Amino acid sequence: MCNFSLHLQCTFLPFSKEILESCSGFSCGDDELDNFFHNDADLYSMELMGKTYCWITNDKPHQIVALFTF
Question: Domain ranges in the chain?
Fold first, then answer.
């Protein structure tokens, strides 16, 4: 059984290019989604089309654990 706790070991933040750059490499395994998060998520936010949020690990180097867009 995994002892990982999203609540205790991660921080919930609005996603940005700065967060992407401060975290170790991110890939969800889907090229289209990777392209969106790497290139378009900030534009969607600026155009009020969607807001992306993430959970990153508290330990360094930070890792993105989850991303989603509303």
Answer: 9-69
